[in-house]
Amino acid sequence: MGVSPRPSKGDRGLTARPTGSLRIGVVAHFYPPHVGGLEVVAKQVATGLATRGHRVDVLTSAGGGQPGTTVEHGVHVTRLRAFDGLERHGVPFPVFGPTLLWRAWTLARRSDVVHVHDMLYLSSWVVALACRLLRTPYVVTQHVGMVEHPSRVVRLVQALVLRTVGSLVLRGAASVLPISPTIEAWTREKLPGARTRVLRNGIDRALFRRAEAGDRAATRRRFGLPEGEHLVLFVGRFVPKKGFDVVAAAAGEGYRVVFVGGDRPAHVAESPDRIFLGALSSEDVAAIYRACDVFVCASVGEGPMTPMEALLSGCAVVVNKDPAMRALGLGDGVLEIAMTAESLRECLVTLVGRPGAVRELASRGRRVADEVPTWVQHLDELETVLVAAVGGAADVTSNG
Asked: Where along the chain do its domains lie?
């Protein structure tokens, strides 16, 4: 890369590493095996950077895993105990104990640069503060704007965070990386002068691919899915911003809805029209995409990766009519509707009932999917941003 690590701040605890490589700290409120889109991105990026020769240390909560430090695919992952009971109410906000303070300080002190996933979370606030005190450069990937949560309290808390600690996190970043032009526009509107640069999430084209001969039937048999019916797929956490209740209520004649992401919630009645497969590995999720006909994304206030994964896998895709979704740039490759349970049911009944309609929509989607960046392209750009942040910090240090 041609850039050496920035000058030491005392004993940084750096291990020997190749010339030009960096020690990169990563903070994400959740990390796999916890299920979610941000978690997928955090792992892809951390693993990819480690593969390129960097030392990568992830600081996260123990949601979905055990507290402690492990090495996973070359990445050093430290999971801290945290209360995550708020997630049951659709608020993915782990509340860390005091251990976060010294772990955050250690991560900032030992890193050349820190990569923060979103400014909305307690772990991001504490690590960003430690970075600012220690003059460690950091960059922020901004995954969402203001989430249109149905709870007025949650919306007020988000607004308060943006005006206070969230603003400080973004203003102190060497670079803010919104994942879409819509989130960039939102960031610039709320924080004029923020140093933003759109960096779209990548896609693993080897994992998410169209079905080969016999794939669909084999996968349906393996997961006990009906082989002669139209299957409509939902992938994600069962929370309001993902539109889970809308999709769950949209069961109709001529298709069954398959849910991946967790067990059936207690408030959703058992029905032969709804099939819950639980939380699955990435490989199994990719196989389920290929085994289904239509994918539905009812998210509000965010542009998740799932529609792009579904397009690459050969699904016809129906999405919510939402500005953040439109910012994904999927155009006529998806069917966009103002999504309610009634409108979605009507759309799906029409789609599966019209000969060739599902195949036609899937064909349009495949052409759009070819324009989605790969993870290699994403990492190339992110690595450039991280190197520039370290170089900028070194210049400041050398100039006193």
From this structure: 23-202+374-398, 215-369
Instruction: Tell me if domain 23-202+374-398 and domain 215-369 are identical in fold.
Output: yes
Which tokens sit at 277?
Answer: 């497969």
CB 136 within 8 A of CB 108: yes
Give the pLDDT score at 12.
38
Q: Which CATH class is domain 215-369?
A: alpha beta
Is the peptide bond preceding residue 92 cis, with omega within 30 degrees of 0?
A: no
Cβ contacts of 400 within 8 Å, gap of 6 or more: none
- Under 8 Å between Cβ of 31 and 60: yes
Query: Is domain 23-202+374-398 in CATH 3.30.70.120, yes or no?
Result: no
Locus of tokens 């990435």: 282
- Please name the helix (run of DSSP H) or strand (run of DSSP E) that holds residue 181, with its range, or none: helix 181-190
> What is the number of alpha carbons within 13 Å of residue 279 lying toward its C-beta?
10
Task: Kindly state the average pLDDT of the residues 392-399.
Answer: 53
pLDDT in tens, 261-314: 989 999 998 999 999 999 998 899 999 999 999 999 998 877 788 999 999 999
DSSP state of 370: T
Say how many CA atoms lie within 13 Å of 2 toward its Cβ. 2
Contacts of 70 (CB under 8 A, 6+ apart): 76, 77, 79
Q: For 214, left (φ over 0), alpha (ψ -120 to 50), or beta?
A: left
Instruction: List pLDDT tens digits, range 54-74.
Output: 999 999 999 767 899 999 999
Instruction: Return d(Cα 48, Cα 204) in angstroms, integer.
Output: 12
Q: Are 177 and 142 within 8 A, CB to CB?
A: yes
Res 33: pLDDT: 87
Tell me the whole-structure pTM to 2 decimals. 0.76
